[in-house]
């Protein structure tokens, strides 16, 4: 199995982290987005959308979109709740990650870390701070009640949100303001099979 991605990308890292927790062997194929490696004819034949992460399985089937990949590999494991309501809450957090968290935190991080804060995007960067802090506040509130986002069991919702949250400071967000998130990050880091971004 091959996984095409950039370990510094939260969307790619979340896949790497789940595969590590599950102990699934794979070949990591590094892709450089800024150099256009996802726009080559060869890569577009694998994923016409030209985005990472993309998984090519042993039988040649391809799968993209990070949260879909998480769902595929976590199926029938402890990382997906068995109860109907808890499973729906897990999906609720996955949608939250894509629509209320990543568009602010990941984009701010991209502008600062990857682009080096170009003058043309400084205003946009500052405009993202409010939305990002709102997302972190919502998470911190939930994590003040439960060890993980859906009760007391780590799910793919935690893995998805951990990816960009634990490096949110690289986008200008002060995680010291969110003690419950900090404790949650520590719990995840201490789990067997954990692998970091670096």
Description of the structure:
The protein is 52% helix and 7% strand. Helix 1 packs parallel to helix 3, helix 1 packs across helix 6 (156-165) and helix 5 packs across helix 7 (179-189). It has a four-stranded mixed sheet, with helices on one face. It folds into two domains: 2-74, Glutaredoxin, CATH 3.40.30; 84-189, Glutathione S-transferase Yfyf (Class Pi), Chain A, domain 2 (Up-down Bundle). The chain has seven helices and four strands, in the order E-H-E-H-E-E-H-H-H-H-H.
Protein traits:
198 residues, alpha+beta, Glutaredoxin, Glutathione S-transferase Yfyf (Class Pi), Chain A, domain 2, 2 domains, four-stranded mixed β-sheet, 4 strands
What is the name of the CATH topology of the largest domain? Glutathione S-transferase Yfyf (Class Pi), Chain A, domain 2
Strand content: 5-15%
| Number of strand segments | 4
Number of H/I helices: 7
Q: Could you say how many structural domains there are in total?
A: 2
Query: Distance between termini?
Result: 22 Å
User: Structural class from helices and strands?
Assistant: alpha+beta
Write down the overall geometry: globular
- Indicate the percent of residues in helices: 40-55%
Q: List the secondary-structure elements in sequence, H or E.
A: EHEHEEHHHHH
Low-pLDDT ranges: none
Summarize the structure.
With 198 residues, the chain is α+β, with helices and mostly antiparallel strands. The protein has helices at 10-22, 41-46, 66-74, 84-114, 122-143, 156-165, 179-189, and strands at residues 2-5, 27-30, 54-56, 62-64. It folds into 2 domains: 2-74, 3-Layer(aba) Sandwich (Glutaredoxin), CATH 3.40.30.10; 84-189, Up-down Bundle (Glutathione S-transferase Yfyf (Class Pi), Chain A, domain 2), CATH 1.20.1050.10.
């Amino acid at each position: 199995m091959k996984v095409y991605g950039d370990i510094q990308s939260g969307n790619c890292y979340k896949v790497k982290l789940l595969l590590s927790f599950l102990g699934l062997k794979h070949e990591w194929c590094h892709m450089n987005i800024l150099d256009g490696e996802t726009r080559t004819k060869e890569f577009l034949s694998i994923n016409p959308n030209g985005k990472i992460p993309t998984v090519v399985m042993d039988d040649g089937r391809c799968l993209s979109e990070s949260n879909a990949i998480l769902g595929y590999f976590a199926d029938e494991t402890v990382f997906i709740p068995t109860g109907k309501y808890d499973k729906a809450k897990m999906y609720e957090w996955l949608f939250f990650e894509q629509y209320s968290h990543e568009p602010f935190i990941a984009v701010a991080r991209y502008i600062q870390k990857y682009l080096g804060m170009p003058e043309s995007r400084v205003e946009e960067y500052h405009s993202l701070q409010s939305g990002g802090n709102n997302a972190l506040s919502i998470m911190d509130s939930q994590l003040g009640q439960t060890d993980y986002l859906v009760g007391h069991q780590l799910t793919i919702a935690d893995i998805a949100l951990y990816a960009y949250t634990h490096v949110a400071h690289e986008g200008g967000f002060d995680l010291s303001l969110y003690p419950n998130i900090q404790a949650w990050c520590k719990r995840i880091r201490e789990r067997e099979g954990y692998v970091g971004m670096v």
